[in-house]
Amino acid sequence: MSWFDPILDRVRGRPPIVSVVPLRGVIGSVGPMRRGLTVESLAPLLEAAFRPRSVTAVALVVNSPGGSPAQSELIAGRIRDLAAETEKPVVAFVEDVAASGGYWLACAADEIRVTSTSIVGSIGVISAGFGFQDALSRLGVERRVHTAGSRKALLDPFRPENPDDVAHLKAIQGELHARFIDWVRERRGDRLKPDEDPELLEGKFWTGPRGVALGLADGEGELRRTLRERYGARTRFRTLSRRPGLMRRFGLAQAGATALGAGTADGEGLFGGFAESLISAVEERALWSRFGL
């Protein structure tokens, strides 16, 4: 697509078409019965959004509290590759929240729009867990762990916290945080205003209007109204959605049967499927609750 194509479309009477890609939910794999945002699951959607010559622009609808740094980087990279190959502009519209990895995805757009009640930012890395070192002894349970490698049981929640383990974790978090900062600076450039808040890149988050003032977003705006003002009242929107194929639906049916008690060869059944789904749901809920959602 060249810059001249939208002009030709108008001359020929064709309405502008905008592909709308929803990026809603936790980023990464969140459990057997729940689908997070991954580059594998989004790749077909992104191809379908960018490739048609009739498409004028691509809109990303972002509503995510974050998740996997690796998947955030892979998804954002795929968006940028397709935008460069097809020469189509990309605009991100933030719904409730674009925080942490969610903001990483929003930065894949050329422009970020928010609402007055959106939450943006949280440019940092977090790792949370619990310590159960006293729980087993109170229950009269002996835990047996055997490893090859002196640090293989790093950050074991059933042992007292080791300062060396924590230092190792913080070093990894520091590397990931630095990569996140580099990406935000690469995408937002001179629009960022760190003088307005020295902790701009240190994990804090803000409402949409404050995010605009800090350069994290470009302005307020709702998707249809904003893009019709830009491309014309006749602009049409193609909303794409992820749908599991036949094999995936079959796999979900199998997972459901296991969760209901069908069992597996290694002894997993009702408890195993329920426990894994419950843990995934709690972890996902914790991500959203950090932002009051």
Give the averaged pLDDT, no decimals. Answer: 81
- How many runs of DSSP E, i.e. beta strands? 8
Q: Calculate the terminal CA-CA distance, rounded to whole Å.
A: 40 Å
CATH architecture of the largest domain: Alpha-Beta Complex
The H/E string reads HEHEHEHEEHHEHEHEHH
Number of domains: 2
For this structure, the CATH topology of the largest domain is 2-enoyl-CoA Hydratase, Chain A, domain 1
- Which secondary-structure class do the elements indicate? alpha/beta
Helix segment count?
Answer: 10
Could you estimate the helical fraction of the residues in percent? 40-55%
Name given to the CATH homologous superfamily of the largest domain: 2-enoyl-CoA Hydratase, Chain A, domain 1
Relative strand content: 15-25%
CATH class of the largest domain: Alpha Beta
Uncertain regions: pLDDT < 50 for 5+ in a row? 245-272
